[in-house]
Write a sequence for this structure.
């Protein structure tokens, strides 16, 4: 069925992630995570509130960071529209890598029709598995890791030893890592940034075949938004850190046994995502400052069409600072 082209909100959202990256990039390697995060949040919120949207932050700084801005439930945008949206926001995916001058730190925002994003409430962790388009449809988070690895290898026409898996470097993953090593696959362990890691499974030439492990539930929702456009797959199951968290979750109606598919995490295909590199990584260059401005590298994605654009932008201080309230 033909339809009229509609506005690509990702092209507006990229201004949001560029602003966050330009502000936070000043703190690369300075060891101050809090200052970097505040700079990104302040810039992101200012630009979001200039957009003609009526948005509610479903995934934000939230309970995890006790943030005064871009918190879960905050309304953003001018409100000059009848259309309402859910927003998933991560001003810095990879705060520690940024603070210590490491790679793969990005600013990312996703938007979809109101009521389409999974709201994890206060339950911050989930077990995840993510793959790119070639292995879509062959994974099952309830099956053993080795069985999933074999299915991924068959789908990608590779040997097990040719696969590269990515996982957060955490003690809770010791058993998973032992099983991967026993299977003979290559393992890339990262300190932070599992939104970026999930996206790497679906982006050409990163060399990453699958993501495994327990990471943030908010990050899982944001990754699902990106995977909608990238034609990848992500599955998750909520993870309770202790018996008290499990009890509170069950009392609140959360099902810790349910497999959360990409459709559960973001039910609408009409999702928009923008991401800008802060530090240089596997698929985005970091912010590059010059004597009279800066350069940024971004991706903008739309789930409905599958269109992914790469945007390299040049920002001039002499013009930008006359117009912007943000101190870049």
């Amino acid at each position: 069925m033909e339809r009229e082209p509609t506005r690509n909100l990702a092209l507006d959202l990229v201004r949001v992630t560029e602003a966050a990256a330009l502000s936070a990039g000043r703190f690369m390697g300075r060891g101050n995570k809090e200052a970097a995060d505040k700079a990104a949040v302040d810039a992101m919120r200012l630009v979001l509130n200039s957009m003609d949207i009526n948005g509610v932050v479903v995934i934000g700084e939230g309970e995890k960071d006790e943030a005064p801005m871009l918190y879960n439930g905050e309304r953003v945008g001018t409100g000059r529209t009848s259309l309402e949206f859910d927003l998933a926001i991560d001003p810095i995916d990879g705060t520690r890598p940024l603070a210590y001058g490491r790679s793969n730190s990005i600013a990312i925002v996703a938007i979809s029709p109101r009521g389409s994003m999974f709201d994890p409430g206060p339950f911050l962790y989930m077990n995840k598995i993510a793959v790119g388009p070639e292995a879509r449809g062959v994974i099952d988070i309830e099956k053993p890791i080795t069985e999933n690895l074999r299915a991924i290898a068959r789908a990608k026409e590779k040997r097990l030893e040719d696969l590269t898996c990515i996982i957060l470097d955490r003690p809770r993953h010791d058993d998973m890592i032992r099983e991967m090593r026993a299977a003979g696959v290559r393992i890339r362990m990262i300190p932070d940034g599992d939104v970026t890691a999930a996206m790497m499974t679906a982006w050409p030439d990163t060399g990453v075949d699958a993501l495994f492990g327990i990471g943030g539930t908010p990050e899982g929702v944001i990754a699902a938004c990106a995977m909608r456009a990238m034609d990848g797959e992500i599955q998750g199951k909520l993870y309770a850190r202790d018996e008290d968290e499990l009890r509170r979750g069950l009392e609140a109606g959360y099902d810790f046994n349910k497999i959360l598919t990409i459709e559960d995490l973001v039910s609408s295909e009409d999702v928009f995502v923008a991401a800008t590199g802060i530090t240089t990584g596997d698929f985005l260059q970091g912010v590059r400052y010059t004597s009279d401005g800066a350069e940024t590298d971004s991706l903008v994605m739309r789930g409905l069409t599958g269109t992914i654009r790469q945007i390299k932008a040049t920002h001039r201080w002499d013009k930008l600072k006359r117009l912007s309230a943000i101190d870049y």
